[in-house]
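Entry for the shared binder. Reason: the reviewer on the internal report wants the predicted structure included alongside the sequence.
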Amino acid sequence: MSESILNQAIESVMDLIDALKLFANISRGALGTGNGLCCEIGPTSPETVFLDKNQYIPVDLTINGKHSNLQTLSDAMNKIHESLTMAKSYPSGTSWEIVDITTMTEPQIIGREDSNVWLMASALLVKVGTMTPKGE
């Protein structure tokens, strides 16, 4: 597990996505050569910093997918959004918690490779709150 609060939060979102048992596990960074799912954090900064230095950080998380079957890809991308945005509880750590996840951009087709592989993209807003661990 990462030491960075944002990386821990995003890794926990990736775990939620992997638990959906889609056609592939999600990875960080760029899509590989075959069917797959990936995510990456966009530019972000704290929206609110409190007097105790705790923060509220809205994180733009881009989700990209690639598959030779458009229906399989579309179903997976939409399931990610439906499952994460309708969840009643989210993961937390000792110094952070995910407060909510909302859709910024619905899954959409962004292209088709020469090899007839479909590409889709979407974006989630992962709302992360930081908190000072007890005793500090």
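Summary line for the report: Strands lie at 26-28, 36-41, 48-49, 55-67, 96-112, 118-130.
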